[in-house]
């Protein structure tokens, strides 16, 4: 299904990572994505491995089809999943829900778990040119709902307002987002928080339409609901051929999945048994796919006998459960009981993962051979365990090799494999957590945290070298698990959460997770005041950097001052040099260029003396940055060219791209437009490949300035708007102000241009930064032109109006003046 779709990027976060990014992570208090396969059989796509068709589920409070309907697990947080198979029997539902969204800002799809609410929502979203996806299934903490929605909308720096977290007065740091569709999936287990967040979003962003999925309505005044029914079934008393069954969605789904799973079509003689199976499963898409997953081991008549006969293995005997829910719950237990003990143990351990993982990570959860295993819970609150496989069903031999156990779980549809990575469906994950003893789960979480702390600390230095892109990708894939590990470490003794937050700071910067990275660091600093001074100093520096990137220079300076409390002695030259680098960056953005240059020059000498060539190159680049912002592009160029040569020699992607961006700026301010375009185009290509949003935003800003100077106002406006969206996406208010001033140059309406300048001035007042010196002459010329066009008083009034208007409103396109047909005709005849 090829649809053009705007995707605003988790994480952990996801989820990402959202992480927050949509994730199963928060089930363990973290956050940002999901498998069941002989029972949860062949669902939305095949991985290319024999016997590993992907299944899907829509469990109670679970993630449904989020990961199973897209071709890989590297889609950015906030992306709408992409189905790889057609949706059966839902044309009328799709049309009806689409119509409802035309007249209602909020539509909620309701229905039993496994009815296909998420899959229907994804299909509806595909018709919208701009849509994003917030998966709440992994969130056990209602406080994380607003962050998950913000991440899906691309607002990592500023979550939607709530009663406890009101909207900031500026509105800066958030993209406009008008006319998007936001899918909020799996609301039932955090219903009050989801309702509050959606309600607040309606007041904050009336242009965003919301399509929610939940087992019950959000109960908001403007809400429309649509109940998602089971798939249509043939009359069980009628006589049907297999060809007839293909016209009924429920039986068509079973035939398709069973044929894929067994590797051959269902025999024609089994038509009545197919009807019996689908009828016994109430036409629920998930349950049908679960049952179809067994057709490589059971014939359809055998499966029908198990479902309808004396064994009745797929039904829960709990008389208080709804019939459809009984079917869905029991099918997982039946599959679990078919495992041997080592497989069951591994499944319970793997439930602590909150996203895709590889075999090495799974092996890291294995206890020492001599460690006794905790018992399995058998209390009445666990999922049903009364159903057992037929005693004649052969059991797999006991295996202890982790690789063999993973392969067996994949073959039995309890894990999904894509390439070298695995994932567990949320339905199965919650079941496995429920049947595990708490001590067993805590031990697995401890080992899980150790795996991901080791990953973070291994990746940190490698982000400074030629393998930067590779390690950024690895950390991005692990975002959800990193968030879960962080959540666990926050509750444990020691300073491991501080270590992890510090190790992940560069990743958070490069991926635009400013708010999350900064929060991890500041929370850990508050929790661990007795950590070693060197660890506290490093964490304070990284937190200050992220605060500075968000334009919060006051807090950055405060954190830097705290860092001086732990400032290393002269023996730790590198520690002092890092602090001087930070102080130089803060001074630069405050317009204190001489102070900045002094700090950075001292840091450069220290790094050279300490034999740290990478940080030496970085100090050169920052000196060049300060020089051209101060209005001295000629003085900046030598620093930047030396730094570029160093970064190219190291194969460092970010350093190379950023130097090219700065050299493009130098060429622009020195009047070399062709050279500027070449350098900036190269930089943009590199930043985009690296997915470094801040770098993309800066480069687009400069390309817009180049086009503006060339007189290409429309192209300049397009580039600057794109830059503004990206700066606001990561929460960089300092650059947001500069881009607003640049956009004012593209406006034909002088009053509107003045209002944009007023909006920028308001941001600058709030964050305490002046207009950069290199940008001042162009702004002064524009202000003089506006005075000529409007007069002194009208210009002042327009600027004041811009200061008083929230940014989303300020950026809204003006409504064109409508002329009546009579007036238009009269003008034509003159």
Descriptive key words:
disordered N terminus, globular, disordered C terminus, 3-stranded antiparallel β-sheet, 5-stranded parallel β-sheet, 830 residues, 8 strands, mainly alpha
Please sum up the structure shown.
This protein is mostly helical.
Low-confidence stretches: 1-75, 157-177, 309-327, 374-399, 819-830
Assess the beta-strand content as a share of residues. under 5%
- Judging from the principal axes of the Cα atoms, what is the shape? globular
Q: How are strands sequenced across the largest beta sheet?
A: 2-3-4-1-5
The number of E-state strands comes to 8
The major pleated sheet works out as: 5 strands, parallel
Give the proportion of residues in helices: 40-55%
Structural class: mainly alpha
Number of helices: 36
Please characterize this protein's 3D structure.
55% of the residues lie in helices and 4% in strands. By secondary structure, it is mostly helical. Strands 2-3-4-1-5 form a five-stranded parallel β-sheet, with helices on both faces. Helix 11 (341-350) crosses helix 13. Mean pLDDT is 80; it is low at 1-75, 157-177, 309-327, 374-399 and 819-830.
